């Protein structure tokens, strides 16, 4: 029986025989772009790593090192819980297009077919995790031993994350319980670090728990590649395609639409009840009911309440209102889904009746209430400063600006820059909303 390596060699040879000039040109262009990327981005990465390694363990330090250490641990565990859900949405090992129809249906060894994708994903995750660990230790002004330990911890956690997700994909589980346990553990750890005085973390004790198990998990995940069926391999192909298109066209709506449809298909059914009132009152009750059905947004809203208090214990007091503004914006944004739906559908606005201003205002009630409540609960961290008044205004303004943003227009004039051709009008559309936050943050700093 033929092997996967032989088939790949035959495909490359067939491509050269059918279109020799075009195939060689495409191959040379690909090699050139890869080498250029390695030289440019690799050089930037090397310089960044050298600077983080050379950062002296003296100078300005964080006001509370144990709190910072436990916050980083809590955020790392919380991030693992969230990333498990995200990776399982995409696969993480994905097969689509010709690979799915022409190769997965053959009696070839499936592990040989998928090993390249798995190892690339594991290596990239290990590098990203190691860099995040090194950046964290550089931020904490650790010595060389601390930087090495933190880098190894980050790399081990990232590699273990990929391996666990592959094992969950092979077993057909959605990883909901594991993700919930890790998320709750991370939030509790971060909360205890904020409101208590934790001890200093001894990194060698943590290394044994987060470096050795991922090695066995990666080996077990590689062995499980042979048992991945086509349903598991193709489940995230549509999400991956939507993500690529959304990134290429700078339009996150292409991704959020498919993600929302998947979410409601997973829920299956909800209890249907009539809406009280007429027109605007019914729209308001529909928005309130949407809040109670979107439990994930409520959890995010509640979890982000810790961030201003953590910032108050770690960074200078002048920057705490800025953290409060940004976190409030992130917490309130999911509750503006009704406003986004109204703004993106002209036919829905015509069917509902009333003026556009009235429809916008009635769908701003819930985001405004959630922003005011979030600000009141976090204002003790800022001392009820006058700058905190800007927080709900900025959060609601950002949600309104993003929801009322028209479709992207790609027909604007392009300008030749050292970074390539850029469209100034496209940049203006991309920064609709973030510029408002930047202005309000500047007002807070100098208020």
UniProtKB/TrEMBL annotation:
<feature type="transmembrane region" description="Helical">
    <location>
        <begin position="180"/>
        <end position="197"/>
    </location>
</feature>
<protein>
    <submittedName>
        <fullName>Uncharacterized protein</fullName>
    </submittedName>
</protein>
<dbReference type="Pfam" id="PF19814">
    <property type="entry name" value="DUF6297"/>
</dbReference>
<feature type="transmembrane region" description="Helical">
    <location>
        <begin position="292"/>
        <end position="311"/>
    </location>
</feature>
<feature type="transmembrane region" description="Helical">
    <location>
        <begin position="70"/>
        <end position="97"/>
    </location>
</feature>
<feature type="transmembrane region" description="Helical">
    <location>
        <begin position="31"/>
        <end position="50"/>
    </location>
</feature>
<dbReference type="InterPro" id="IPR046264">
    <property type="entry name" value="DUF6297"/>
</dbReference>
<feature type="transmembrane region" description="Helical">
    <location>
        <begin position="148"/>
        <end position="168"/>
    </location>
</feature>
<feature type="transmembrane region" description="Helical">
    <location>
        <begin position="118"/>
        <end position="142"/>
    </location>
</feature>
<keyword id="KW-0812">Transmembrane</keyword>
<feature type="transmembrane region" description="Helical">
    <location>
        <begin position="203"/>
        <end position="222"/>
    </location>
</feature>
<feature type="transmembrane region" description="Helical">
    <location>
        <begin position="383"/>
        <end position="400"/>
    </location>
</feature>
<keyword id="KW-0472">Membrane</keyword>
<feature type="transmembrane region" description="Helical">
    <location>
        <begin position="357"/>
        <end position="377"/>
    </location>
</feature>
<keyword id="KW-1133">Transmembrane helix</keyword>
<feature type="transmembrane region" description="Helical">
    <location>
        <begin position="317"/>
        <end position="336"/>
    </location>
</feature>
